[in-house]
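Suppose you are handed only these lines of text.
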Amino acid sequence: MSLLKRIVVVSRDAEIHRLAQKYGREVFGADSLNDALGIVKTANPDLILFDHRFNPDHIREFFDTADKYLGDVPVVAVGGDDSDAGLYDEYIKMGAYDYLQGRRDYGRLEQIINVIENDLSGSGSEAGHRTESSASGSEVNLSRFFVDNLAASVSMVGKSCAIINTLKMTQLVAESRCNPILIVGETGTGKELVARAIHALRHPNEPCVAVNCAALTANLLESELFGHVKGSFTGADREKIGLLELASTGTLLLDEISEMPIDLQAKLLRVLQEKSFRKVGGIRNIDCKATIMASSNRNLNNEVLANRFRRDLYYRLNVSPITLAPLRSPERREDIRLLAEYFLKTSTICPEKRDKVKSLTQMAIEALEKHDWPGNVRELSNVIERAILLETTDKIGLSGIIIDPSECNRVSGDTTDLIKGFSLAKAERELISRALQETGWQKTRAAALLGITRATLYAKVKQYQIEKNSCIEKSSVSAKGGQDDFSMSSLSKPVPIH
Ligand SMILES: Nc1ncnc2c1ncn2[C@@H]1O[C@H](COP(=O)(O)OP(=O)(O)OP(=O)(O)O)[C@@H](O)[C@H]1O
Ligand SMILES: [Mg+2]
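From them, the structure of the protein bound to adenosine-5'-triphosphate can be written out as follows.
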């Protein structure tokens, strides 16, 4: 079953929330169009669900106000059980991706998610969008990439001491009654995979909800976590169920806990100590039975010393922390090769090159092994996807390893003539046009290729007024070396990492 990274649910219907939790790793709740806009601005969701309170005109209003933050994020309207089938056309006309006609249609959401997920996989937006099958769809045996079943269950590649120790600790903590659980490590090291492994071992059939503490304002985060009662603040025109309540007897993952505002840290500490909480404005204590996990890519001890993180909360969290080593560390570096081969085998970024790009040359692997990987596994996965996309032979060589595509604007001395008369802006426009053309205008894939976010891509497309039919002709981008020929081939000259 496919899982999307983030779903926003504009509804207070607990059933629709539960439905979203089945398909989303992080589910954000909103009550109103305004609320939804606030979350969309910061959370970068993959899907937005509106309940039947929002008619087709509301959806249009939402598109009008949220347009520049939305990109092509699909919006699905979920009608009530007695809603009118005729509304389908109305919603679609207003720009909705689909319309579910009440509970009888809930099953269809899985198909919708699969289509969205496939689209995202095609974009290579993150290694999470990988399949257990090869690019051609045939099943492949991936067991050689994993130390044990636990690692395989969450696709955690690696055979190094660092990974073996992490998995041991993960198993121990999952089987203990340790609660809360802290997972630390630099960005992209695999903290979310560890969280998923613990959840799968501890609460296989319970909900898992997650919130990124850096993605929401203090007020939104508080009502997201605790929920609120009707009338508790201006705009709280109805009751909201918070994530602590939605997690029920499952898991609540607090991602990037170091970014939680200090006032809220105090409130969280109280929940951890008293195992109960109140909704914002509420008077009733609600039991908290969930496992609370927190992850951080900052050193929390340093945050405590800088007075940005409460010492008492740090001690409460730091009982048996699980630490992910950076990919460059001596005890994990040996996994780089295995990870690169795994990403090559499982990537779905370029279906048209199905199984054509089969391996990496020894020099390419050595180059990968020499790099320091500040973005860790996520960065490595992006580098491999970019290499697959650009590769024209069956083997990725040294020249295919482009570590930072934005660096590609740095052209070495022998090509200086080539760029006379060109501004950086012109070069950027051309690079973006070419990426869009290469990917058939799939913006998420183009953004991945360029190593920028979708939002940045949208902004640049607008800034440079790039239109589908204004895209450069393929013939004009070949490396002829003329004055007016700042071609992609020169732009995409690999940045040497060796
Ligand atoms: N050992 C691994 N094997 C395969 N893929 C991995 C591994 N570790 C991480 N990844 C992939 O790298 C990406 C980043 O991993 P993840 O989201 O777990 O990192 P993180 O530590 O939570 O990062 P952040 O701090 O930025 O949230 C994901 O796509 C994940 O699937
Ligand atoms: Mg994470």
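What can we learn from it? The pocket of magnesium ion (ligand 2) is lined by residues 191-192, 255, 295 (CB under 6 Å). Confidence is low (pLDDT under 50) at residues 124-137, 407-422, 471-498.
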